[in-house]
Input
Amino acid sequence: MRWQDLLFLHWPVDPAPLRAQLPPGLELETWQGRAWLGVVPFVMARTRFRRLPPVPTTRTFPELNVRTYVRQADPADPRRGVWFFSLDAASRLAVEGARLGFGLPYFAATMRVDVAHGEVGYRSERQDRRGPPASFVASWRPHGDPFEAAAGSFEQFLVERYCLYAVRRGRLVVGEIAHRPWQLRCAEVRLQTCAMTRLCGVELAAPPASALAAAPLDVAAWSATPVGGRLRPSE
Output
């Protein structure tokens, strides 16, 4: 797949509400004592399974995710990754496939992306009744020279993540991804609406503390595999 027209927006938040929503086996990662909540709109393009032709309705579509940053609690395998609170997408087939195959909280949405004269305009309105209403309207324009996140930097903490976690049929699973380091630029953002965070119980009243636009990037992903044992129903 290819991820393009991508914007990383991040807000510092109180760790407690996010930590309380993580399943056993994961620990919340913080930076300078604060948790970080990301809202990431982009376009998924050239999507297909290996050795199979693309499915027309899942080949190219907008997607928007709300996420935070975690690691495995097992000190023998403390892989750093992403935990998603929601993922909205304009492909119903992709939504149902990701829910079934990965256990990810995908929701169907009406979405539109317009790119003109170096500016990206993005609109999303959730249509899926399995989640609360959620909307996002923004435009952004990258500026400045491109750069890669330096080792140990705040930007690396936010964007260079190579696995995701989910709970599928009562079991914590991990899905690995692979890609080159992100090529980032600072972004000038006009954020009109960002009502995407009801599922994680956080209100985003202030402007984002970090806004980074990313160059298109080719990504490979693998099927999710179990981590440890099955979670107890009470968990």
